[in-house]
Amino acid sequence: MRNKIHPTLDSAVGDIRDGARIMFGGFGGAGFPNNLIQALARKGTKDITAISNNCGTRDGELGLMFKNGQIRHVIASFPGPHSNYFQEKLAAKKVTLELVPQGILCERMRAAAAGLCAFYTTVGVGTEVAAGKEERTIEGKRCILEMPIHADYALIKAETADELGNLTYRLAARNFNPIMAMAATTTIVEVDEIVPVGAIKPEHVVTPAIFVHRIVQAKGVRYAG
Amino acid sequence: MPDKPRLTREQIAHRAAMELPDGAYVNLGWGIPNLIADYLPKNVEVYFHSENGILGMGRRARPGEEDYDLVDAMKVPVTLIPGASFFHQADAHLMSRGGHLDVAVLGGFQVSEKGDLANWKIPGAKGSGGIGGAMDIAAGAKKLIVCMEHTTREGSPKIVRQCTYPLTGLACVDTLVTDLAVIDVKPEGLILREIASGWDIEGLQKLTGAPLMSLGRAPEIKFL
């Protein structure tokens, strides 16, 4: 059995180099990989392209990495009312932003996960997000072409992993995490608990182990703000 | 300009709640729509959908009951009703976009006579703005209701010939519930269905930036 379990958060993110494209799970305070984010802040990786629904809650979640100037470009749907460090860097032109409708953010990641080259959608037709995108009419509806979003890494949060990397999530802390797990080249998960293989019933597995490459147990920060 | 009474935000929510059919799967957006759950008629049961992956969302959590892994799209701790389910965000938006939700209710900055909606960014506002799930919902809900004040704070119409604010979606709004009227958006134009007590169509038209049509005399807005 390939050993996916890392002894520390720092070793789990140890090879993430400057310029990496990284997906970060979480929504509305729930399901953020806060401990992995702190490890990445300690490591000091720079020029990151971050793919995340929001852009931090004050110092919490991605806020810390914007504060530290580690992120150069962000693909997000709803930066959020308390993403003050992100907003400061955006206003100072230290960060660039691509704003994406939330469901289309999901589907662009799923396209990457599924090996699809692109897809057409009616979402965003006639709005700012259609700028520069190919448009065509399908079954009488105006559609725009959306491209996949790939990433080198996904940093995600789950409740339980078995030693193979099968994952379950707690309540609504699931959100973007299973999608990002499938879309990135290397998926790193922080979990509350690691259990022996077989302890999670196969029909309860939400993210199958094939999508998970590194597992680290984290009992630190759960909610950031 | 006579200072006639207008509906409160709560009354707009109350009137919009009366549009929800029994058994419907419903998504409520930020602002006035978020108040609707408090005004459901007694004989109506609906299932609330949240874009972070919840179907069967219940009331807000009481003090001491909060679990921060169980929040709504506004980050507020909520509860579940029996029969609720969780799913990931892609499935949540698939429900919005794919025509699976029966009704969605959103707030609005501007609505055009063709049913175009602008509700995510005010021109010139500070910061990045954020789209969230609004564009997916606008593109795909079977029925889209918009709740908003009829005019801006300065008194300009929010119902217009053509939106000047950044758009959320084209020709997506089915019904408008404002503090002055209930209006249906039809291919032939804006049809006044109900009007606030004390108002007439001439007075209402002065505050509306697109022509209103009425099939006979529109009845007063009443609350169940």
What does this structure look like?
The complex is a heterodimer of chains A (225) and B (224). Chain A is of the alpha/beta class and 225 residues long. Chain A has one domain: Glutaconate Coenzyme A-transferase. Helices cover 21% and strands 27% of the residues of chain A. In chain A, α5 packs parallel to α6 (177-183). The longest helix of chain A has 13 residues, at 102-114. In chain A, 52% of the residues are buried. Chain B has 224 residues and is an alpha/beta fold. Chain B contains four helices and 13 strands. A ten-stranded mixed sheet of chain B has the order 4-3-2-1-5-8-10-11-12-13. In chain B, strands 7-6-9 form a three-stranded mixed sheet, with no helix packed on it. Chain B has a single domain, classed as Glutaconate Coenzyme A-transferase (3-Layer(aba) Sandwich), CATH 3.40.1080. Chain B has helices spanning 9-17, 89-97, 134-140, 201-206, and strands spanning 25-28, 47-50, 54-60, 78-86, 103-107, 110-112, 117-118, 143-147, 159-160, 175-177, 181-186, 189-195, 212-214. In chain B, 14% of the residues lie in helices and 27% in strands. The chains are: A alpha/beta (225), B alpha/beta (224). At the A-B interface, α4, α5 and α6 of A face α2 and α3 of B.
